[in-house]
Amino acid sequence: MAHAEEIQLQIRDEGFPEHDSGDDDRAWLESAATATRGANRRGVRWWVLMLVDMLMLLCGEAMAPLLGRLYYNSGGNSTWMATLAQSAGSPLLLIPLLILTPRPAAGGEHRPAVSKAKMAAICVGLGLIIGCDNLMYSYAMLYLPVSTFSLVAATQLAFNAVTSRLINAQRFTALTFNSVVVLTFSAALLGVGASSASGDDDGTSGSSSSSGGSKRALGFVMTLSASAVYALILSLFEVTFDKVVRTRTLWWVLTMQVYTHAVASVVSVAALFVSGEWSKIPAEAAAFKHGRAAYVATLVGIAVGWQAAALGAVRLVARVSSLFANVAGTVALPLVPVFAVAMFGDRMTGIKVLAMLMAVWGFLSYVYQHYLDERHADEWKRRSPADCRMCAERADEKPCPAPAGSCASSGLRRLNI
């Protein structure tokens, strides 16, 4: 009896009402139904905004690699200029950033101010990592056909599953593990195909069979390395939102995006001058296949495409998780090789088709796991107050089977006694 009173006291201390009668339960159910209707309205808006984020990510990831390949095929040779273009679109985000104002914490909750020195260090660190990642992507685009590049880049989902587990405490299941394994084998299959197809006309630069094979191998390694670093970047963004900023508003998403990419742009500009490539830019623009205007338009398109992809990814990280952002980006996987075949004459070999199907299989495995998680969480959110009291009364016998935080919609919190 004393134990039951202690449990009830702890529930009152948490700020939740005590339910003692059937009338209270009925009143609670009516209020829960009202809250559920409001949550459903918010849910529709949430799904619409998430679809907009996914559309930005998909359009950016489909457009940017194709324009990057066009840059090299039309006479572009500066890897640092291609690297700069991947982060130079961040000033476009200053307009919505200046219009928006920081949103106060939900429910009037007071949060301590974020340290400016800490945020500056985080933005500089992330910016340097993004700059290195952009450089690796530039070399990968130089040495690989765009179809192969896009398929190998899908391994970022496998890498992100690992970083999400280590950094963000992401839960692993059989379906998630299946997704990681299938995508890893898909990339390995492409690597074998790229090394054996030294005589293929894939649209990449190369003067001889041996040098072309070595460049393709280097491009494959660069793509894998860039994918691993990109997965790390998304996980670091997520842990920054959770542990440092402690909010996931659009204002903070834009702020992180602008400052980190500004640092990456500064690094790329400095490297462009130090390497001496800046002196070759006028001649490169003059010799561009379709003229100076096409040269500028191609670089602007690359900047806009990568910025849209990055903004969509970071918004999905803030809205859901880094792993979900990577999964959403994988949806663009079948699009790029098809466009590459039409635009650049890339050969859609049997190995690429098989690798693409394996990658889609891995993507669908994770999507189904996400569906099961949401369904399981919804089932626990429909629990009645009596179920939650029973859960509290038996908490000393075995742990509550509900997922953490799933009782929030019923006004009760899982007790860890």
UniProtKB/TrEMBL annotation:
It is a multi-pass membrane protein. The keyword Transport applies. GO terms for cellular component: membrane. Keywords: Membrane, Transmembrane, Transmembrane helix, Transport. It comes from the Eukaryota. InterPro entries: PUP_plant. It is found in: Membrane. GO terms for molecular function: purine nucleobase transmembrane transporter activity; purine nucleoside transmembrane transporter activity; transmembrane transporter activity. The chain crosses the membrane at residues 46-67, 79-99, 119-137, 143-163, 175-197, 217-237, 249-274, 294-316, 323-344, 350-368. Residues 195-214 are annotated as: Disordered. Belongs to the purine permeases (TC 2.A.7.14) family. This is Probable purine permease. The lineage of its organism: Eukaryota, Viridiplantae, Streptophyta, Embryophyta, Tracheophyta.
